[in-house]
Automatic annotation (TrEMBL):
The chain holds residues 709 to 986 of 986 of the full protein. It comes from the Bacteria. Residues 24-278 form the EAL domain. The lineage of its organism: Bacteria, Pseudomonadati, Pseudomonadota, Gammaproteobacteria, Lysobacterales. It comes from Rhodanobacter thiooxydans. This is Diguanylate cyclase.
Length: 278
């Protein structure tokens, strides 16, 4: 009986099943409540040097929802509804603040952190001012922060986004283009954007160890050449096997991220060597 009820709750929270208004409103209500109760938590996934040292250079902060009944929820379970309802903005600011504090508390002084920024934020006129205030409040040096944006976010209003990222760069905050290669892939905007980092989507990385002659190898090599020409750093996402890592190293990719190198986990766990995340 309890299990059945649990199952029903589960379905209520599955955004793919939350198709009617009642379900969506219920999830929105739960999101609000979770925010008030402090149930969102950033997990940190290490971003490592692909130079043989395996050294952790920084982390990507990824949101998790410690749901009292369902356990740890990933963004795929709730992000769409958080975005559609506009709640994502409050949730993200809460996450940014927590992430800054946690990095300061647990990260090496020279480590950086990337945070995922929903396209909605970049539409706001005062996003950059608010971010600067957050850094002042928490004490995190701007050089240690990188914003991850997706190609979709850029399409919205490229000129406005470019101007915002430009202002942020002027004060030391970096920008990364997330999931590169999966979106609209208009190469024309790349050189005009003030990007510090390109993140190669894991769809390409996961094809790498199948056969050295896959089209993914060609695509990754081309992205690396492009990034080099534009003086942009590269992070390969979703590295799961040693051969994927080795192929990327052989191609000269400087940084990587993925389950092989470390799963997302509470940052305090990264102090203990050899620990694994969730
Ligand atoms: P993303 O930014 O592309 O993040 C990478 C996703 O891949 C993460 O999923 C991460 O856990 C997962 N991942 C990392 N390494 C591997 C691997 O080796 N193999 C596989 N299969 N997956 C790997 P996650 O944490 O579920 O996040 C999904 C997406 O949700 C993120 O994609 C990002 O777009 C969004 N997101 C995460 N946190 C936040 C947040 O605080 N705010 C906003 N607005 N969006 C967020
Ligand atoms: Mg990301
Ligand atoms: Mg990504
Ligand atoms: Mg992604």
């Amino acid at each position: 009986r309890a299990k059945q009820l649990g199952r029903k709750r589960y379905e209520l929270f599955d955004e793919r099943l939350a198709q009617n208004v009642v379900d969506v409103l219920a999830l929105e209500g739960e999101l609000r409540q979770a925010l008030a109760q402090g149930l969102f938590e950033p997990y940190f996934q290490p971003i490592c040097a692909l130079d043989g040292s395996g050294r952790t250079l920084g982390y990507e902060a990824l949101i998790r929802w410690n749901h009292p009944q369902r356990g740890l929820l990933r963004p795929g379970d709730f992000l769409r509804i958080a975005e559609d309802s506009g709640l994502i903005e409050t949730i993200d600011w809460h996450m940014f603040e927590l992430s800054c504090r946690l990095l300061l508390q647990h990260g090496r002084d020279d480590s950086f952190m990337t945070v995922n920024v929903s396209a909605l934020h970049l539409r706001h006129a005062h996003f950059d001012r608010r971010l600067v205030q957050l850094l002042e409040r928490t004490g995190l040096p701007p050089q240690r922060l990188v914003l991850e944006v997706t190609e979709g976010a850029l399409l919205d209003n490229p000129e406005h986004v470019r101007a915002t990222l430009e202002r942020l760069r002027a004060i030391g905050i970096g920008a990364a283009l997330d999931d590169f290669g999966t979106g609209y892939s208009s190469l024309s905007y790349l050189h005009s954007l003030p990007l510090r980092i390109l993140k190669i989507d894991r769809a390409f990385v996961q094809e790498l160890d199948k056969d050295a002659n896959t089209s993914s190898t060609t695509v990754v090599a081309a992205i690396l050449a492009l990034a080099r020409a534009l003086s942009i750093q590269v992070i390969a996402e979703g590295i799961e096997t040693p051969s994927q890592r080795d192929a990327l190293m052989a191609m000269g990719c400087e940084m990587g991220q993925g389950y092989l190198l470390g799963r997302p986990a509470p940052i305090a766990q990264w102090r203990a060597p050899g620990s694994v995340g969730a």
